[in-house]
Amino acid sequence: MQFIDLRAQYDLIADKVDARVASVLRAGSYIMGPEVKALEGGLAEFGQAGHALSCANGTDALALPLMAWGLKPTDAVFCPSFTFAATAEVVPWLGAKPVFVDIDPKTYNMDPAHLEASIEMVKARGELNPSVVIAVDLFGQPANYPAIAEIARKHGLKLIADSAQGFGCTINGKHPVHWSDITTTSFFPAKPLGCYGDGGAVLTNDAGLAEHIESLRVHGKATASDIAGRDFTHDPKYWNVRIGMNSRLDTIQAAVLLEKLDIFAGEIEARNRVAARYNEHLEGVVDSVPFVIEGGVSTWAQYTIEHSRRDALAAHLKSRGVPTAVYYPIPIHKQDIYSRYPLGPNGLPVTEEKAERVISLPMHPYLDDVTQDRVIAAIREFNGKVG
After folding, report:
1. Where in the chain are the domains?
2. Which of 24, 124, 178, 380 is least buried, going by the fewest C-beta atoms within 10 A?
3. pLDDT (tens digit, 9 = 90+) per residue, 245-291?
4. Are 326 and 359 in contact (CB under 8 A)?
C-alpha cells in the first residue's frame, strides 16, 4: 500500500507526459521554454489570479515576495509553528524575525485571535515592526483568510498565503489570492499538484509585485518597465538592476505540470470523496477526524486524524501493511535553532498538544475503496471495534 501513489497517476497520463517531455528534449529549450509560460497562464487561470510566476521551489516562492517588499532586520513576520520549517526559515534568511502564532484546535491553521494578540504584543514591546503575516494552508485546507486578512489590513501588514500543501483550496469558491497579497505554492512531487523534481510558483493580482518578482527570480534582471524608453548598445538581458537569485522552473518540469494541471480539478474532487469516506467510517472511532472551515474545500494533501495512542496506532498499522506519517512532531519553535525567536502571548499550547496527537493516513486521488477499507479495518481493530 502506498501512502501517496504517484505511480497510479503517472500510469493514467504517461503517454501525454512522455510526449510533452520528448517535445522539450527535441526543442532543446530547457530553461524558461514556452511550456513555462503556458504553465504560468494555466496556474493564473486555475488560481483566479492576475499573474502567476514559476520558480525553483516552494521555499524560494516564500522568499521572493519578502525580498520584493524589502524586509528589514527590525521587521516581524507572523507565522505558525505547526508547519514545515520553510515557512519560518525564509524570514531569518533576510535578517528579519519570525514571531510564532498558535493554531486553531480544529483546523490546525493559524488562529486569528492569537494572531491579533501577537501583533499587539509586538507593537507594545516596540522592538520590532509588524510587517508580514504568513498563513499556511496546512494539510490542504484553506486558512481562515477572511478573518486573517481583516486583521492584517487593520494593522497595515502584508499577507502571504503559503499554499504549498493547499494550492487549489477555496473558501466559498474563492482561492486564497482573493484575500492575500500573494499566494505561494510548491510542486514537490508529494504535493497535490507536484512535478517530478523541485518547483514552485507565486500568484498575485498586483502587477507591480509580479514584475518585481519576475526580476528577482532571474538575478535581478531588468524588467520591461526598467527597459522602457532607454537606448541600449548591448543586450539588456545582461542589465541587472536588483539583487536577485537564480530561481527558475526548468522546462521539463513545466511540461509535466501542464499535463497534471489538466486533471487537477478532477483529482481534488476524488480526494474529497476519499476524505468524506474516511470521515464516515472513522467518526467516533478515533479521537478526531479532520474539520474543514465553513465554505472551505480542501485539497487533502494529507488526511490527518488525532489519537491519544498515536505511536501505538502507527505501530499497529505498520504491522498490517498500512503506512502512516506524523506531521509535525517537533514544532518549529521547539527546535533549538528557532527557539531564540518570540512566541505570541502565553505561548503555543494548542500547537504543542496537537504535535503529540496527530497522525496522517494514506491519501491520494486513486485510493480505491478496497484499499481504504483495509486502513479503516486496521484502525477499528486497534480500537477493539472490528466490523
Report:
1. 6-261, 264-382
2. 124
3. 999 999 999 999 999 999 999 999 999 999 999 999 999 999 999 99
4. yes
